[in-house]
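step: validate -> pass
step: tokenize input -> pass
step: predict -> running
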Amino acid sequence: MSNDWEQLIEKSFESSQNKTLNLLMETVREVMDEMGDLVVEKQSPEGSRGRTYTIKQIPLIPISELGWANNESGAKGGTQRSLLEDWLRNVEGASFQDKLANVQTKMMEGFKEIPKDGDVTEYIQKVMSYLVFAKTLTMAITNFNASAAGFNFEAFLATLMAGEQIPASGANTIADFTAQIDGESVPVSLKLYTQGQLEVGGSFTDLSNDLISPNGAWASWASSPEFEGGAMKYVVATKDFEQIEKGASPLERKGTINFYEFDITRKNVFRLMADASKHSRKCIGSSVQFMDELSEWDKTKQGDAPNLSSTLPPKMASFTEIAELFSNYLKANLPLEGPLASNASEIYEEMAEMHLERMEAKSKPREFPTSAQIKRAVAEILGTNTRDAVVVKLSNDVVGLFKSFREQVLKKIDKRAEAIKKLSWMFGEDKKLVDWYESLSPEAKIAALENTYGYLNTDQFGIPNKKAITYGGGKPFAQLQIGAPYVQDFLEKVSNEVMSEVFSIFDKMAEMTEKLNSFFANGLKQKEQAETGAQAGEEAAKGARKFAK
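step: predict -> pass
step: emit ->
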């Protein structure tokens, strides 16, 4: 509420009423901040005077991935993150499995009545915390597109687990956030996909580095002997939502989120990768000669462990230098004439930028934009479409020239890649590879990871849907119902005398807001609307003070 609103009200009422209205305005500001847009009502049977609960009575923390991000060190209260923390810390459990299973149970069974000698305040706090969890997660998932919902989901779970999100830029880890589990800081890589489309993957080099040398923030957990010195926790979730009609409100969406969890460790990484996919089996490939040398070293551990990487030629030029080389190669071999001449400079520059972006995205020097990407870029520059004959011909010419560039230029400067190809490799299809790796000491496993095919080539690993679920135990450890109808059902399960009084306060707050909206919408003429709103606010305050005693 603005100060202008307050001044307008003061002009419309006697001075004796100002004190009440000042309190009213302060209360309105708080309520307006907390009230969500999600309203689903469950009507009492016809003729019944039974209580009607609506989920707008449940407080809603403003949803924002940035707002839910980590507080600054030592920050106290006031931020969206702090408010969310205040509610979620009352969700019981010391792990993902405990907390989410408790939410599932509460949503299915509700809460028991307060014991005669029970703490009413604690009971209310706990009930409201679980309701806020259900409503806020529903809003964070259903009211945003897939990408934004994923970010919200990550921030929400990091807050639930009293952890911290890890910035993607310069993180040098595959983890998305940390979680406090059984008193220890644990790195978590989170995946949220539509049911049947789950894919757990990422940079094999980054994963290996996490297993080789855990970050100090979570080294205590990751360095556990059971992991043989390094580990990463994966929490994977699948969304199974009902289809909604085209044009329907996102708030009508409902379904279930299934949760699975598994650890990739220095001990089990080869076995998991070998059983996962073709890409993953290639990542753990090892030089046959190196395998023999490392096994011999592991018997005595005298001197430094063998290092295949040190015997290879140095890495080639940077991606920026490669992009510049190709740009020069393109200009020399593909002069742009005719209708392309006036846009030549822009086209060359765009090709170089796209080439660089593609290499950086794939972390490979031999990556190049696809024909479709080139067509779209050139068509935009020329102000035409991708079917234009000039655009199609140019795209084909550029793609063909890159193939020549790869053979004539890259092979000469990328001697490391050529040397790697010439080695004799054993890949994950051969069961002897996993047996060999698991026979090594934890120290030797470090050398084994640093000299894998995937590590040397900065490859991507992938664990497809069914395998990820299998690694997570085959069955979800928790299944949370998401959607307004489910939150409404949960709300009905907590109906009792005490919670009726609590929700009565929220009712009065809602009534106060409604009456004030009507008062202002009608030009501040219907003073009875403001009077009724003021009375509702006073009753809400009276109820709140009762619980505050």
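step: describe -> Residues 319-413 form one domain.
step: cleanup -> pass
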